[in-house]
Amino acid sequence: MSSATELSEEQAERTGAVEHGPVAAAARTNRGAVRSDNQDTYLCAAEAGLFAVIDGMGGQKGGRTAAALARESLREAGDPVKGLVRANERIYEASRADRTLDGMGCVASAVRLLEGTAHIAHVGDTRVYLAGSAGCEQLTCDHTVAASMQEKLGLNNRGARELGGRNQVMRDLGGKLRDGTRWIDTLEVPLEQGALLLLCSDGLYDSIGADDLFARLRRAQREATPPVRLVDELIETALERGAKDNITALVVRHAGPVPRSMEAPPSPAVEDSTAPVVVQETPARKDARPDGGARAWILAFLVGLAMGVVLAALLLP
Question: In which band, very low, low, confident or very high, does the pLDDT at 153 lie, cut at 50, 70 and 90?
Fold first, then answer.
């Protein structure tokens, strides 16, 4: 990738299978069934453990330029948060310097895998999903008018389908200069062995639907589906369902060791397997009180002792 705006046609469309150490990944993007151009892009740098899906906004030229600048900013920074901060500044400055790029911007979700933990930074309505042995969940929250209304009204995904403002993004990269990093959502998620991450644009999850997408991810995680095959399956399904927007999917499978935070406590060491097993009773607490059975036995003993004393006094000379 020689510059921020130059990608070969093959690189722009798909990666194929990518593997590095315990990480296997694949990415693919497509303009969709309706759009004439594609303003989505991705970063799939398995050697650096860095992945991102980016959705450009602001017309064909502006959207593609903003997305490319964000991709290069993330690659150069090598860190999701620093990369998004740098992208915001570069996109804003570029739009101010060139009137044909006025109003351009993008949204992005970026992940860096480090020692079995996913470090995530997110702005906008791209998404990150996690599929593991316990099921599937959406890790990121959309920064849209509809998502804000959904939260305030307490609606589930089905109930929120008819809400307006699904495409009105409340946070983006390049719209204005920002201080600090509080405008970026961040989280750290430990990954179990075999965990599956999906980064995608709104064109993909809107086309497939939440229920179907979750089911496909759960099945892929359970069956250890290769990322390249899952990516193709998701893109083809979105196209079959008439994807109205650009569609991008990036899948990462983590096959490395479980992070320490998820490990079970070690079992006690056995020094000699041939030694006799000694069962040691737990000492009673000093302030422990006898239970009901013990109290009844003690009472019966005291009554019997008293009766024995009385009988002995009557019968003995």
Answer: low
Cβ 73 vs Cβ 83: under 8 Å: yes
CA distance 89 to 70: 10
Tell me the domains of the chain and their CATH numbers. 9-258 (3.60.40.10)
- Report pTM: 0.77
Which residues are CB-neighbours of 206 under 8 A, at least 6 positions away?
A: 166, 243, 244, 245
Looking at the DSSP assignment, which residues form a beta bridge with residue 186? 121
Identify the residue whose tokens are 């600048």: 69
Residues 117 and 120: their CA atoms lie apart, in Å, by 9
Residues 122, 128 contacting (CB under 8 angstroms): yes
The percent of the chain in helix, strand and coil, each rounded to the nearest 5, is 40, 25, 40
CA distances from 222 to 72, 185, 217, 253 (A): 34, 29, 9, 12
Cβ neighbours, 10 Å, residue 126 = 29
Give pLDDT tens digits for 192-217: 999 999 999 999 999 999 999 999 99
